[in-house]
Amino acid sequence: MCAIVDFSHCFDSASDSIAQTHPRGGCWVKLRTPLVEIWHRLAQGQSVEAMPRIWEGETPRQGQLCCEPNRESHRLAARFFDVAIMSSVAGKLFSVIAVVLYSACGNFAMQGQQLRAVGPKRTPVYTYQVIRTFAHDPAAFTQGLAYKEGFLYEGTGLYGGSSLRKVKLQTGEILQQIKLQPSFFGEGITILGDRVVQLTYQSQTGLVYSLNDFHLLRQFSYSGEGWGLTTDGHDFFMSDGTDEIRVLDSQTFKEKRRFVVRDGNEAIDRLNELEFVEGEIFANVWQTDRIARISPRTGKVVGWIDLSGILSAMYRTDPGAIPNGIAYDPVHKRLFVTGKLWPRLFEIRLVPRRTD
Ligand SMILES: [Ca+2]
Fold this sequence. Notes:
eight-stranded mixed beta sheet, four-stranded antiparallel beta sheet, 4 helices, 11% helix, binds calcium ion
């Protein structure tokens, strides 16, 4: 039977470790469906197994459910709705919904066996082990990161502050740098052969440089916004802030195809910085601590990486200081991650998360 439990003591916006500190080991679940729609579905007796997705460690917001992993099945059993909204004036309306939700919750719980039978298989979640840390320019608004032969290449954003850099991995020293013209907001970068390619946010302009001296070789155009960029050695793969990834011809920069990124039935949008890693595309998801591991063939999310807590909260006072930067050294199989305005860059090893 479902019960309302007050988790409000867990609400700590300064903490990234709610899931870890919660005495019952709960996890926060973000709903991709509006609360009212959930209510309708529950009222109609529909199952809700496809709605929750785990965002462990996130501070709960209005419209979220707090769930606990079912120890027997590792699936989710509904326990609670967001008590935060109950304390707000606007929460009065939601309180009414919540009562219905509470009533329906028992129904949900009774459907548990059915949900276990028909629910989607949970996508594997990985956490990380830090192998080494390196210095990173805390003023770099990182939008693109790549590695080649001992050096990092980094694209930074903001109007008037965008750049392309060559960085010494061991020290973070900027060895070479060009500034973009003030009308360009730099975005993702990638390296193919002797060229560096950099996207711009809303200027619909791509920039192609010589890797050796950052001499601008040419520009190209695309529709929509430019976010992340990577390559499999043949084509370019580009994100634009939506749930789609475009595949561009590496010579003409014309779009060859595009695909939607989905975790089960859920489209994953806000795909940001990209990196090809051992045949998969790793993608930062904007304003989260998560990296999606994506099949470039199907668009299917084959895993999640949770970077929660990798950078101490004391360095993340700026709301823009989110994870955004993935680079891979295929020779030594080293994975590097950093973020906007982060003073550290991390070499990490992925560790499957225990689901007990
Ligand atoms: Ca990258």
